[in-house]
């Protein structure tokens, strides 16, 4: 299916937009304006755009109507009327926005094979593995993850796991215009609950797993699961690949109505499964079941959890009919996912990693692997991000202390929360969680230096929680801080004596 290119097809008229919204939408002002784009951020408005003035947590977008008009907006979409520009008023503009943005940009997802990956852990790695598999199978790809948006025009750092609706549709339109075949994208529960992905057609939805996270945003686990399950509603995704290693995945697999396959690294009762899993310092091996005869697979990615992610990608590609021999070769060749058990090597006599694990489910999957790499000690740098579910903090410390010999509690990004309180909660958990030595070093760079200074030959050091993140936030202040660079510098300083 071809996509309307806003530059070569006649512009859409505002009144058509109103008609699409149905009889509950009202328009003040003329409907004759030509609409060439749509934006929900006044700072990004371009001439010919509709500005979607949405209610936010801090401000209402209507406050920025003058700026949007000055930048050339031809109209607004909002839940409030305005006399600054012709305004379409609807009860829930956020809900209306995704499908409208898709329409404005020519429904680009229909021209693409969009793979949407949701779940608590493994979304980013699975998207990277899908991308690697698709490319090896000869498909041109774009990718949208919390790390970066990568497409025909290069790569840009992502500001969110799942972009806001307007940015998402603009990006998909650019991909479609460049005749990209497929897109691997992360779909966060925020993206689902806030309707960012409405208007996007997914060829395959992938569910990795679900564990406690984001309870600062969702009232409880059932609401968190319900948000994730939105991806798999008929009309939104055409097929599903569902991980069934937790109760939520099994619930989803039992209720989805679209064609689906299941995957599991723990049971052979799934459509795609793994046996003989072995993870060492150089990679991860397993035997793949479900794709014809049992097939040996050797991943370059580190850690048993990557078997789950590889199975997720393989199941999703299989359900879409991608040639698995080529795709699996691509999956095997992927050598790293930024900030996911990323090795930092300055020639030191111990292993050092940066990882994104920021919930206890992730810790329980990763720490045993780290433990298996050493007869010496595991030294973990751990913290808790602010403005998140406070109930996560003590368990994060406790689980780290259950597996590590030394836990160094430090700051992540406290945002508006009290940094000392965050550290105290994590440290309290760590002291209650096992026999680990617990140190508290508030400054993250100093905590990393402490970890490498304590390490002996053969030990394992892991700096956990932030992964690829390059910005540390204290209140409104932002400072550039990349764990990988800080670890590299600490190791170099250690080597220099
Ligand atoms: C909870 C949430 O999703 N919040 C989003 C929301 O922020 P907000 O409600 O505070 O917005 P606001 O500052 O009050 O502004 C209201 C409106 O005015 C607009 N505005 C504001 C200022 C201006 O100069 N001009 C302008 O037009 C804003 O675009 C917004 O539409 O609207 C903003 C703009 O659209 C988003 O940037 C912001 O996401 C913030 C950055 C965020 O942190 N979101 C997180 C919670 C998130 O979405 N995370 C998920 C999952 C992460 C994970 O997996 O761990 C993700 O997908 O990234």
Automatic annotation (TrEMBL):
Q: Which Pfam families match?
A: Mur_ligase, Mur_ligase_C, Mur_ligase_M
Q: Where does the source fall among the domains of life?
A: Bacteria
Give the primary localization class. Answer: cytoplasm
Mur ligase central domain: residues covered: 117-316
Please list the residues that bind ATP.
119-125
Using the record's annotation, list all stretches that form the Mur ligase N-terminal catalytic domain.
35-84
Cellular compartment(s): Cytoplasm
Spell out which residues are annotated as carrying N6-carboxylysine.
Answer: 228
Q: In which pathway does it act?
A: Cell wall biogenesis; peptidoglycan biosynthesis
Q: Does the keyword Disulfide bond apply?
A: no
**Which EC class, in a word?**
ligase
Cofactor(s) needed, names only, are: Mg(2+)
Q: Does the keyword Nucleus apply?
A: no
UniProt domain Mur ligase C-terminal: residue ranges: 339-467
Family as reported in the entry's similarity comment: Belongs to the MurCDEF family. MurE subfamily.
Protein name (record): UDP-N-acetylmuramyl-tripeptide synthetase
Gene name as annotated: murE
């Amino acid at each position: 299916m071809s996509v309307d290119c806003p530059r070569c097809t006649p512009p859409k008229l505002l009144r058509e937009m109103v008609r699409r919204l149905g009889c509950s939408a009202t328009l003040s002002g003329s409907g004759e304006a030509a609409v060439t784009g749509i934006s929900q951020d006044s700072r990004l408005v371009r001439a010919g755009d509709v500005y979607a003035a949405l209610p936010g947590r801090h401000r209402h977008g209507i406050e920025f109507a003058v700026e949007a008009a000055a930048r050339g907006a031809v109209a607004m979409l909002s839940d409030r009327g305005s006399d600054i520009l012709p305004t379409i008023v609807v009860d829930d503009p956020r809900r209306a926005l995704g499908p409208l943005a898709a329409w404005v940009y020519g429904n680009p997802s229909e021209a693409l094979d969009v793979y949407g990956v949701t779940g608590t852990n493994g979304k980013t790695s699975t998207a990277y593995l899908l991308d690697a598999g698709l490319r090896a199978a000869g498909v041109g790809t774009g990718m949208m993850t919390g790390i970066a948006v990568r497409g025909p025009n290069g790569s840009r750092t992502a500001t969110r796991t799942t972009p806001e609706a307007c940015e998402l549709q603009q990006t998909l339109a650019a991909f479609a215009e460049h005749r990209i075949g497929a897109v691997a994208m992360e779909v966060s529960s925020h993206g689902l609950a806030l309707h960012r992905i409405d208007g996007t057609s997914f060829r395959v939805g992938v569910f990795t797993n679900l564990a406690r996270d984001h309870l600062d945003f969702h009232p409880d686990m059932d609401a968190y699961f319900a948000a994730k399950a939105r991806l798999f509603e008929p009309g939104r995704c055409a097929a599903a690949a569902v991980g069934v290693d937790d109760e939520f995945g099994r619930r989803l697999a039992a209720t989805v109505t679209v064609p689906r396959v299941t995957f599991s690294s723990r049971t052979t009762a799934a459509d795609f499964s793994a046996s003989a899993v072995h993870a060492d310092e150089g990679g991860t091996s397993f035997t793949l079941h479900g794709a014809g005869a049992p097939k040996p697979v050797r991943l370059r990615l580190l850690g048993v959890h990557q078997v789950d992610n590889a199975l997720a990608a393989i199941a999703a590609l299989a359900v879409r009919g991608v040639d698995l021999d080529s795709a699996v070769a691509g999956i095997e060749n992927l050598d790293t996912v930024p900030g996911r058990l990323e090795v930092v090597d300055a020639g030191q006599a111990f292993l050092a990693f940066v990882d994104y694990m920021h919930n206890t489910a992730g810790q329980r999957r990763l720490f045993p692997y780290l433990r298996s790499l050493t007869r010496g000690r595991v030294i973990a740098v751990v913290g808790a991000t602010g403005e998140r579910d406070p109930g996560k903090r003590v368990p994060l410390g406790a689980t780290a202390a259950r597996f590590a010999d030394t836990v160094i509690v430090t700051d992540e990004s406290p945002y508006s929360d009290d940094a000392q309180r965050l550290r105290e909660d994590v440290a309290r958990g760590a002291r209650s969680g096992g026999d680990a030595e617990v140190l508290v070093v508030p400054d993250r760079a100093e905590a990393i230096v402490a970890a490498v200074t304590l390490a002996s030959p053969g030990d394992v050091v892991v700096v956990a929680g932030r992964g690829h993140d390059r910005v540390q936030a204290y209140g409104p202040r932002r400072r550039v801080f990349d764990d990988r660079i800080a670890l590299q510098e600490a190791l170099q300083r250690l080597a220099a004596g």
